Amino acid sequence: MGKTNTVRNILHRNIERQLVREYLLKETERAGFGGLEFNRTPEGTKVTLQAEQVGRVIGRRGKVIHELQRRLQEDFDLERPRLEVNEIEEPRLNAQVMASRLASSLERGWFFRRAGHSTSQNIMDAGARGCLIVLSGKISGARHRVQKFQQGHIKFCGETALEFMDVGFSTAVKKLGTIGCTVKIMRAGTRLPHEIIIHDRAELGLDPVEEVSMLEIPEDKLEKSNSNEENDIDAEDVASNVVDQIAKIEASVDVEDQEDSVDKVSQEEE
After folding, report:
1. pLDDT tens digits for 55-86?
2. Which of 154, 165, 111, 160 is nearest to 135 (CA)?
3. Which CATH number is 84's domain given?
4. What is the extent of the structural domain holding 73?
5. Residue 181 contacts residue 128 (beta carbons within 8 Å)
6. Residue 227, CA distances (Å) to 134, 164, 238, 253 in order
7. Nearest to residue 133, comparing CAs of 171, 185, 188, 173?
8. Which of 61, 88, 115 is at the close of a domain?
9. pTM (two decimals)
């Protein structure tokens, strides 16, 4: 029974956080909503909002942010929520901001190919390792279709995709229908698990390999190894001599057999 209550509490908490995210995304979309972070502290729940334009979220004399915090306390089941706002350093590397920009450009009448290519190029110019843009919906006709724009290096699944890929989603409402805009960005400076950097020993302050090997091997072991090598050489010489002698004996035996056969033939002819 205790495990069921724990699972229910976790699910309820995640649902509340998703509802808070959707509400703040709707209220601060024009300010460049970039994502949320939830941190549980002894004082309550700290909600950190990332925005492109912090002034629009705060408002004059903090009017807007105080209203948002009041709504969080009254409408959502969060434990003493406290709202903070941080500015995004590089908006072009934020997947949610770029997804909102892409949806806005489609709603303003941009052709989907132009919007997709320009968005991916802006992301790569900002220094990202790779990006993937997916448009799904009634893009250019009455039937549903999917169009993808890909540049650089990306990961589709696995732990590397969850750890290194930033995902954002937005919707564009047009006359033909709704278009879903998904943007995935591999962050700048990401080092994948298979990328290994090999440093020189001099860079790490270590001695060269030759000096280390000579210092580690004592002199008595070196003498033993030299004597073993000499013994191996002597054994090889003895073996080669034995093989040569055996070959000579076989050759002489073959010559004697041939002479005997010639003598027999001559006797028969007589």
Report:
1. 888 888 888 888 888 888 888 877 788 888 88
2. 111
3. 3.30.300.20
4. 2-88
5. no
6. 71, 58, 17, 40
7. 185
8. 88
9. 0.68
